[in-house]
Amino acid sequence: MKSPDCGIPSAGAVADPPAEALRLFNEHGGAIYRFCRSMLRDESEAEDVVQETFLKLLQHLKADSVRSNIRSWLFTVAANACRDRMRWRMRWLPWSEEEDQRTVPPNEDDEDRRRARATLRQLAPRDRMLLSLRANGLSYREIAVATGIREQSVGRLLARAVDRWKRAVDRRLV
Amino acid sequence: MGCLTDVEVQTIVDGEATDQSREHAATCLRCQQRIDERRDAIREIASAVNAIGDVPAELETRVHRAVTSAPSVRGSTVLRRTPRPSSWRRASWMSAAATAAVVALFVFYVLPRFGAPTRLSAAQVLERSLQTLANTTGVESLDYELTIDGAAGGPFRIRHLIDRANPNHYRVASYGADGQLRTAVSQDPVHHQRTHAIQVDGRNYFVRIDGIHQPVLSLPQMAQALVESVIGMMQATADPTLTMQDSPQGREYVVETPQVKPSGAAATLDLYHARAVISAEDFRIHEFEGTGALLKQPFSVSFRLIEQRVIAASAADFSLEPGPNDVVLNGVAGDGPLEELLTTVVREMERTGGR
User: Fold this and answer.
1) Residue A92 sits in a domain of what CATH number?
2) Nearest CA in chain A to B8
3) Distance from CA of B40 to the nearest CA of A (A)
4) How high is the pLDDT of residue A157?
5) Mean pLDDT across the stretch A62-84?
6) What's the start-to-end Cα distance of chain B, in Å?
7) Is the pLDDT of residue B225 over 70?
8) Quick check: bond before A4 cis, omega within 30?
9) Of A21, A51, A85, the CB nearest to B238
10) Which domain, by its residues, includes A139?
11) pLDDT higher for A26 or B352?
12) Cα(A143)–Cα(A160) distance, rounded to whole angstroms?
C-alpha cells in the first residue's frame, strides 16, 4: 500500500511554512481529525489534538527537518498525542460507557455503520489505533512508526484486532 | 503450501503479503472466501471511521488562526526562553505587586473552584471558572508566600481575607521577610470604610477613608476580570503540558504552558510562561509561577500556598488598626483607592508646608 505523496521537498527550507502547513491541513486535516475522533471518542479533545498536530507540523516545517512522508509523520504525531491523552485520562477518570454514548451522532442513519462504530469504540485502545490507522490507508511500516510496534508484528496484531471487532459485532447482533 | 493463516489473509487484504501467499490465494477457493470476508470487515471498519465526518468549520478556523499567529520558534521542541527585564523601577515593582495580588487571587481563590478537571481542554475548564466566584458563603483565609522577581525585601508573606458572600468585603496584607507589615488594604462596604496601610522608612502610615462610593472593582472582581483575559490567552495557546509528580505533599499534577517569546505589540495581559502545581487529591493549587506583561509592564511572580481555610464570618477580623506610634491620616472618598491615597498625601503635604 502506498501513501500519497505529500508534494513537498524532502529537505531544505519551505518558503512559507504557515501557508504550507495550511495546505497540508486542507489535504490531511480530515483524516487526522477522524483518526483522533475514533481514538479519543471526544470531539473537543480530538480538535485539540488536531490543532497541536498542525502546530507541531509548522515547527517541523520551519526546522528544515526531514519531510519524506508528511502524512505518516502527521499520523505519528497525532497517535502520540492521543496516547498521551488516553494515558492521562486513565489516571484521572476511568472511561464511562454513558459518556461514551454521547459521542455517537444522534442522526447516524446507517444501522450497520452505527453498530460498527459503537463496536470500534469498545475495543482496547491499541486495537482501535491499529484499525483506525489501517482505515486511513497507512502501510504496515507507517503504522509501526506511529504506534511504536515492530513492523513484523503489525499484520498479526491487525488480524487479531479485526477478529476481536468481528466477535464484538456478532455479540451486538445477538 | 497449506491454507493461509489469519495473519496471512490479513496481509493479503492489506496489500502487504508475500508472493507465496498471493499465489496460494489465487488457487484456493476457501482462502479466497476468507480474504473476501476480511476485506468486507476492513471496509466496514473504514466506513465507520470515515463516517465521523469532515473537519468542523470551527476547527478549521481555529487551526488557521493558530498556524498564522503561532510564535516564531525553530525546531519541533525548541522553545526560546523569555529574556528577563533588565531592571525594575519602583513603579514596575508596584505594578508587579498589584498584578501578583490579582494573579494570586486567581490561582488560589478561583481555580480551586473548578473542581476536578475531566479533560485537558482549557476551554471547558475555563468556561466553568466564570461561574465560580461568589457561589458560596463564608470567609476564606489565604496565606501564601509571594516572590516577585527583582523586588527587594522578598519573599513576601501575603494574607488574604475574603468574604465570599460579599466580594467587596476583604482585607489583604503583605509582610516582608522580616515579618513586618509592608502594605495592607481593608474595605468594609457596610460601614463605607476603606483603610490603607503602608510602611515607609520603618514607620506605619494609615489612611482612613470614610463614606466610600461603591468600588468600581474589588480584588475578587479583578481576579474574575483576569480570568476572562486568561481564557482568551489559553484558548489561543497550544500545547499546555501535563505531568505527574510525587512530592512530600502527595501526588501532584504539573500543568505548564510553553515558554513563548514576547511579541512586539503587547496586549493588555500577556502570559509568556506559566506553571502550576496542583494537588491530585483535592485539586488545590500548591504552587504557581508565571511571567508575562500587564499593560506592557513585565512581571515575574511565583506563589506557594501555605494555608487555605474557610472560617466563620463571626471569627473573621477584616479591620486594620493602627498602633500607638503609627501615623493616621484621614482621607476623602474619591473615585478609586489610588486617587484617594494621592489626594490625602498631597493635602497632608500642603497642610504641613511640605515638611
Assistant:
1) 1.20.140.160
2) A155
3) 11
4) 92
5) 82
6) 109
7) no
8) no
9) A51
10) 17-173
11) A26
12) 15
Separation between Cα atoms, residue B245 and residue B316, nearest integer Å: 36
Asked whether residue A108 is assigned to any structural domain, the reply reads yes
pLDDT band at A61 (very low <50, low <70, confident <90, very high): confident
Is the Cβ of A74 closer than 8 Å to some Cβ of chain B?
no
Topology annotation, domain B90-351:
outer membrane lipoprotein receptor (LolB), chain A (2.50.20)
3-state secondary structure of B203: strand
- Per domain, the residue ranges of chain B are 6-47, 90-351
Going by pLDDT thresholds of 50, 70 and 90, the confidence category of residue A154 is very high
Interface of A with B in 89-108 (CB under 8 A): 89, 91-93, 105, 108
DSSP per-residue codes, B106-155: IIIIIGGGG-S--SS-HHHHHHHHTTTTT-S-SEEEEEEEEEETT-TT-S
State whether A116 and B121 contact (CB < 8 Å). Answer: no
Dist CA B23 CA B275 (whole Å) = 60
Please answer whether residues B138 and B319 qualify as being in contact, where contact means their C-beta atoms are separated by less than 8 angstroms: no
Whether chain A has a CB inside 8 Å of the CB on B180: the answer is no
Kindly report the backbone phi and psi dihedral angles of residue B270, in degrees, each rounded to the nearest multiple of 5, phi listed first.
-120, 135
What Rg do the C-alpha atoms of chain A give, in angstroms?
17
Residue B113: pLDDT band by 50, 70, 90 thresholds? very low
Higher pLDDT among residues A113 and B22, named by residue: B22
Over residues B39-54, the pLDDT tens digits come to 999 998 888 888 777 8
Residue percentage of chain A with pLDDT more than 90: 25
Query: Of chain B residues 57-86, which have a CB less than 8 A from chain A?
Result: 58-60, 62-64, 66-68, 70, 72-78
> What mean pLDDT is reported for chain A?
78
Compare B164 and B263 and report the one with higher pLDDT: B164
Please state the domain count of chain A.
1
pLDDT confidence of residue A33: 92
Domain membership of residue A49 (yes or no) is yes
- A151 to chain B, any CB pair closer than 8 A? The answer is no
**If you search the block for the grid coordinates 476511568, which residue do you land on?**
A94
In-domain check, residue A6: no
In 3D space, the residue among B13, B34, B53, B51 whose CA is nearest the CA of residue A112 turns out to be B51
pLDDT at A82 over 70: yes
Cα A142 off chain centre by: 12
Higher pLDDT, B140 or A64: B140
Measure the CA–CA gap between B10 and A90, rounded to whole angstroms.
31
Establish if A168 touches chain B: CB-CB under 8 angstroms. Answer: no
User: In this model, does residue A161 exceed pLDDT 90?
Assistant: yes
Grid cell 511579541 in the structure block, residue: B263
B201 touches A at CB < 8 Å: no
- Interchain contact A110–B (C-beta under 8 A): yes
pLDDT given for residue A53 in this prediction: 92
